[in-house]
Amino acid sequence: MQKEELTVDHLVVTLVAPDKPGQVERISKCIAEHGGNWLESRMSRMAGQFAGILKVGVEAEKYDDLIKALNGLSAHGIRMLLAESVVETTDTTRMISMELVGNDRPGIVRDITRLLGGQNVNVEHLITDVSPAPMSSELLFQAKAVLGVPQDLSLDDLQMALETLADDLMVELVLGAKESSVSGYPS
């Protein structure tokens, strides 16, 4: 990835690596030693792998060196995908939190996100889980999300549309959500 004439202030990094002690330290050391500033991140361990996404600030003249160093972490089993950040505009959307619970079934995430996309709703943050239902052998699907909803979309209409996906689906939408309102993210 080569830097164009465009000044880049931030870099978005996604990564996957075998989970073991020292991985975050190795990544943060690489960033610091090459002039980067670790700004924001979400990281988690899942199924023996460590995965994350982070935003790094870097001065334009140090950009290429940082990219090369980050790509060099592949020698340690750390796979990365690097992207330049873009300026985000949120004038036409409002943030809401969504909590959803229902019986698990194949395709439930596809169905929910297809409905959201059809309403021009953007998924900003999403956490899903499946767990045993109380006093039953059935599995419950749970989702917590922050959504960017068009200003002209009624929350009542969105909730009713989501609840039509399954008879047992319970949906709660709350206006004015922040990322920290999604359980699993730091406050």
Automatic annotation (TrEMBL):
Q: Which PROSITE patterns match?
A: ACT
| One annotated Gene Ontology cellular component of this protein | cytoplasm
Q: Which residue spans adopt a coiled-coil conformation according to this UniProt entry?
A: none
Name a biological process GO annotation.
regulation of DNA-templated transcription
Superkingdom, according to UniProt?
Answer: Bacteria
InterPro entries named in the record = ACT-like_dom_sf (IPR045865), ACT_dom (IPR002912), GcvR (IPR016867), UPF0237/GcvR_regulator (IPR050990)
> Which SUPFAM superfamilies has this protein been placed in?
ACT-like
Q: What is this protein called?
A: Glycine cleavage system transcriptional repressor
Q: What is the lineage of its organism?
A: Bacteria, Pseudomonadati, Pseudomonadota, Gammaproteobacteria, Pseudomonadales
